[in-house]
Each structure stands twice: as structure tokens, then as C-alpha cells.
Specification:
CATH architecture of the largest domain in chain B: Beta Barrel
Strand content of chain A: 15-25%
CATH superfamily of the largest domain in chain B: TonB-dependent receptor, beta-barrel domain
Distance between the termini of chain B: 64 Å
CATH architecture of chain A: 2-Layer Sandwich
Strand order of the largest sheet of chain A: 1-3-2
Strand content of chain B: over 45%
Number of strands of chain B: 42
Structural class of chain A: alpha+beta
Number of domains of chain B: 3
Helix content of chain B: under 10%
Shape of chain A: globular
Number of strands of chain A: 3
Number of domains of chain A: 1
Number of helices of chain B: 3
Distance between the termini of chain A: 47 Å
Largest sheet of chain B: 22 strands, antiparallel, barrel
Largest interface: A-B, 33 and 39 residues
Number of helices of chain A: 4
Oligomer: heterodimer
Radius of gyration of chain A: 18 Å
CATH topology of chain A: Alpha-Beta Plaits
Amino acid sequence: MMSIGLFIISIMTSAQQITKNKDKKIITETFKVDGCCSDCKDRIEAALDVKGIRYASWETKTHILTVTFNTKKINIQDIHNRIAAVGHDTELVKAVDSVYNTLPECCQYRGGSECSH
Amino acid sequence: MQSLRIALFILLLTLSQVVNGQILNGIVRSESEPLEAAYIYWKSFVLTNTQSDSAGHFTINKIPNQDTLIVTMVGYEPTEIIISKEQNFTEIVLKPSTVLKTVNIGDVKAPKILSKKDVRHISRFSEREFTKAACCNLSESFETISAVDVTTSDAVTGIRQIQMMGFSGIYVQTQVDNMPFASGLIASSGLTYIPGIFVKGMQLAKGVGSVTNGYDGMTGSLNIELRKPTHKERLIINGYFNPMNLRPEGNIVFSQQVSKNWATTAMLHGSGTYAKADINNDGFQDFPLQNNLNFSNAWMYMKNNWEGNIGVKYLNYAQKLGINDLNKTQNIDWQSSTKNERIEVEAMLGHIFEDHKHDKDEHANEHANNSMGFRVNSHSHTISNYFGGRKYDANEKVMNLKWVFQGLAGNSFHQYMVGATLYGNQIGELFSDNEHNLNLSRNEWIPGVFFEWTESGIKNLTLVGGIRYDYHNYFGSIITPRLHGKWTIDKKNEIRFGGGRGQRTSNPFADYQGIFSSGRKVILPVKVNNGFYGLQQEVSWNTGFSYIKNFKLFYRPASLEADYYYTWFDEQLQVDRDFKSSELRFYNISALGLKSYSHSASIGLDFSPAKRFDVRMSYRFIDSRSGYIDGTTRLNPLISPHRAFVNVSYENRKGWVYDATVNWQSEKRLPQGASLPEELKDMPAYSPSYTGIMAQITKKFNKQFEAYIGGENLLNIVQKDLIRMASNPSSPYFDPTLVWGPSLGITFYAGFRYYIW
């Protein structure tokens, strides 16, 4: 029992040390991305499942994206571009209509305040 | 000095901004309450944006030449507001959007979520949890959940039962879509009758439940959410096959929007086990042969503020086990069979009261939305069992009515729930063996009223206090007080606590069906003259607390959870297999001055060491003991005091999903009983500790189709002496109920799931 507890603690402390060593190039940004449902969430997060991005989470309720990434491997403009490329408008980049129109009906967030579901 | 200077500088800077009117403060609220997480930004300068906090407050920098503020929030109409140059405070009232939204429970993607809103200690599991180990019904899905232990009641029925806090699952309130399910005749076996693929999600609460759900729920509660038309899947076809025990399984789930207001979901499950095997060479079939059928159909109605539901369920499960055909050369024969058939109907109607006064009312807080619900649920369940020469037949007809009103007292900081229930139960039972020939019946009528108050006006503290009064036609008044609380220390640390009383009617024949498969002589309380067997209702108290810390590990969210619970019984039905190895005794503990209690503690860590890689580690300790007729206090049988597991799952970008669980359990006490005959003197008093490993690989070919293969019990642990005295089933020492481990060695299975969205 003790050993399991110690193991958990050692993992946590070592992980925090790693975090500290790399702090300089890994940052977290939050911004708004348009979308509406869990399908949109999957699509947005899948678009950010690339090298350099440690963690990306889009909240269905608030439409806020939290993304943690390594600035040496990817920049914020690229992140916005990747989201727009799958059809979702961000604060900086708007998705082109031709891509937006390919989204399933339930995800057509530009139509009104909220989409179906 | 340095820091003081910086602080002073910041203070001056803030002051100057306020003086210059460069900051706009405000509050966002609905008609009734402050709105959290509303998104606020300048119309043509979206980069300057903010969100409102839990009190609805926000602060935003003013931008030159910007006078239009936009506020958006899900469920409300987006609102534009003109802000004048001098203004530094504004109050924004959002109107609910006119589109009626259905609740999409399926949005939860992580397999396990601890909801921050819950006051009780509730873990929410999504369907992902039930695909980690794809077999088969819900009772087999708890390997990765530390709060629940699963045991096999006996080698004959193979019924898997849950345990919480070191006590049988009969003290856990198991509901399906918030309606009682595993109670009465299937209190101990209920989860067997829920196929995993029917399940969309599950909420597991540790400790006593809410009084709104009844006076039971003594050690914990489970609510299982079945698939509904509001979920996205239109059709699911699932096939599964285990070649080791020849177990095929098929499931179809079909949902359809029928008209504007009506939608339906139909679910069908069929499964069986057909292999005849006697690996341990004791003459007996190693696992029961089965034929199972399960069907349900629910219709949902939605219009404006009304929601209704009607549904029907049917299940038919049959199992057989005995001396294997292959071994029938001997003169001995012993066969057993269990059959369960159930038909259930239910209806529900809910209404949200429209707020008529809210327009133009300055003090709109006083007129918030209230809601009301009415539910009726009724079933007939028939059991027909025989174990050698011992027979048990039972039928129960149950009706459950519930009316509940949920209201806000002033504002959403003070909520209350008030309601009434009526439970009616008519049971008939036949029990016969060499010594007994009982024909029992009973009628239970239990009207009850309850009141629950939720107080969240106190800073950082939310309290839920509840009380209910029930009147039982045989046992009289039952008063059930309960209290739960949540203390939010800060955004990342939470402590929950709670406690209260629980009670239930015991039914030895139904609650311990499997145990009657032994050849032990059954000794019942003396006064068995009606369906209450001369037994008292069981009464327990439970109290405990839990601590949750949310933090970042490897840049991803992680959580650490620790809890402790104490449970004790004022009255309990003791099932005594220890006083004598040839006897099975039932008696109430309080009249004999005996105690029954448990201490249970656990610690768990969830984290993601890499993207799409989740790890769950958990350890739990249980010390549960009870008193016996010989005056001793023993560890409760067949419960491991220590259990630890690690569950890992990884998904790569190409749709391959890997799941593995290593589950270690310490020794369990085996209730062999005193005075064993000479030939059984070597039977162990404790089981060995053992480790179970299971692993599964799933390939998602596309959104429609996925296939999986998996293996269970990869270390090939087998309990060889599965049945005590298997050589002589007519002996009182014959006992198939001392099961501590798997009857089947290493097994493999394969299956697929096909979805239409």
C-alpha cells in the first residue's frame, strides 16, 4: 500500500520537474472557436492532434478552445489555420465557405445562435 | 522591497485605469440567476474578450472607438449593448433562446468524469468505459472501477454480484434511468440483466443516496442510462464470440424519430453459452450453459415544456449446470437450473413551468422556473430455480409511483424538492428441500413523502439536506434523514462529505439465491409464518468524505481522488456459513447483540502521460466485519481487504485502440465453517491473492465500423477446487459457493460494432 502511494507521488513530482524544465517554450492559449456540438468538438480537437500540440480541448458550452503547445514546433497562426481548414471560424481566421458547406447539417453553426441537437 | 514596489505600481496602474474609465466592469445574468461563462467581446474587436465568473461578474478593457459589446452564451439569445464613453459598469440580462434543446448526455467523451456540480461523490462513466472490456453484461464492467468489487456468488449460477464498502450489492441502490431496477427478487443479480451495449452512461455514487430515491441506497447508488432517441446513433449492431466457452452474443439498438414530437428506441439482446467443459475434472460443468433474451422499447414525447416517456421491457434468462454429460458414467447425478422472466412497463411525464412574470419585472429573481414530474413503473418477475433437490419458485408483482416537484425558493441558491411515493409489492414464494416445504406470501404497501433542500448561498459550501417518512404496512414508520455537502476549497480542490440512514426489507431466498446451491442444511429463523420470515428490516448508517484534486500533469488534466467511508448496521440479516461447515444459518444480528461494520478507503489517480493515452491507477482498502452466533467477529467472507489496479488505454491516430487492465486482489476469507470432516481438513481458510490481466485491441475502420479482439485472465489463474465435495453432491458438505477466482482459464474473444449515425 505504501509503495503504491510512493509510486504515485514520485510520478507526480517527476512530472512536475519535467514541466518546469521545459516551461519556456510550452505555452497555453485560449480563444474562441465557432461550433456547436460534440461532433464539432471532435473535429476541432482532431485537427489539433498534431506534433507540437500537447493538449487541446474545446468546450461545447462556452466555445472556448484551450490549447497547450510547443512554440518551437508550431505557432499560434498555424493553430488557427488548422481549425479553419476543417470548417470552424476562429477569432483570427474564418473558414472558407466551400469547406464550411461540407460540414454535416448538425454542425452548421453560422445559421443561427445554436445548431440542432 | 522589490515586490512592494511592483505591487504599488500595479495598484497605481489599476487605479489609473479605473479613473480613466478604461476598464468596464459588469455582470451577466438571466432573469433568475447570475450566468457563468458568458462570452463577452467588443463587436469589431473580438480579440479583446472575457468570460463571466461564477457570480456573473466580468471585467473587460475598453477600446477606443468601440461602443458595442456582444454577449453570447449557449442557451441564450446573443445580446448587443451600447456602452457610452463614461460608463464603467453595466448589467446585462440575457433572454433564454427560443430553440428548445434536448439534453445530450452523450457529449461526455472521457470514460470517467467526476462532475464538479454534484454535491454527492458521484463518478460518471461514459459508454467508453463499457467498451474497454467488451464482454458482456454490466456486471462484468467493473474491473476498472475501484469503488465496486465483483464476486461470483457460486459456481452453479455463475451470477456476478457487485459489492460496495465490503457489503453485498443488495445494499446498493441500482436504478435504470432513475427508476428502481435491481431490487426485490433481483436485488443481488440485477446487473446481469443489463447488456453493456444498451448502456449510454452510468453514474456511481458512493455512500448513502438522495432521499428522493427512497430509503434504500445504504452503501451507494448506481444509475444506468440506457440509450435513448435523443442520442445520435440511429442503429447499432454488435456481435461477439468467445470460442473458449462457445459464447455468442448479438445486440441491435435502433432509434427513430417518428414524428415532430415522438421518437423511439428499441433494443434487442440475445446470447448463450454452449460449450460443455470440465477442465478441473470434478465431474461438473465448469460454467453454466445459458440462453438469454432481452428486449426493450421506449417511446419519448417532447413538446414545448412537456416531456414524456413510455416503455416496455422483457427479459428471459435461463441457465443450466450440473454433472457434465461426459461424466455421467457414475451413478451420481446432480443438476441445477435457474430461470428468470420479467415484464416491465413504465411511464413518465415531466413539465417545466413557464415563468409568466419575468418580462419587465425588475425583481425577476423571485420568479424562477419550477418543474414537476410523475412516474409509474410496474413489473412482474418470475424465478424458477432448482439446485439438486432444493427448489425455489417466486413471483413478485411490483408497482412504483412517484411524484416530485422541484422548485426554487427565491433564487437558484435555494432549491427544494418535495414529493411522494407509493410502493406496492406482492410476493409469492415456494421453497422446498429435505427439511422444508414453505409456501410464503407477503404484501408490502409503503407510502412515503420526502423533502430535500439544496442550499448553495453559503460561500464555497453547498449543502443538501433531506428527510423522508415512509410507512410500511408491516414494519411501521421509517424515518430517513440524510445530509450531503460539498466544500469547494478553490478551483482545483474539493471536499465532499455526507451521511445518513438506510433501510431495506431482507429476503433471504432471493438475496442469496446462489448460496442455496450448496448441500448445507438451511436453518431459518424459528418464526417463518409469513413472507417476512420472522426477520426485521435491515438498518444501516453510512458516513464518509472524499477529496478531489484536479491538476495538470504532462500538460493535460489529471485528478487525484481519496475517500474514506464508515458503514455500520443497527440491524442486518447474517448469512452464516461459518458456525458449522454443514449448515447455512440466517438470523438477525441485533437480537443477539452482534455488530456489523466496515471501514473503506481508496485512493486513485487519473492522468494522461501522452496524447490519447490514459492511465488510471487505484488502490482501495476495506475492513468489513460482522458478528456471528458463536460470539466471534469475523471478516466478511469473499471480500479482498486490499485491491489495486492499473488500467491503461491508448489510441493512435490510425484508429487502433489498446486497452489493458492489471487487477490485483488480496486473500479473501473463505467461509468453510467449523468442524470440517476429515477428508476436507485441508480445505484452505483463505484464498490466495491473485492478479487478473485483461487486454483488448480495437480497430476503428471508420465512424461506422469497429472490430475488436481481447483476452481475459491472461495469467491463466484458475480456481481448481471450485466445488467443495464435488464427489458427493448429496452431502451437506457439498458447496459450490466458495468461489474466489475464475473458473475458466485464459480466454479470448472477438467482436464488432456497426453504427449508423
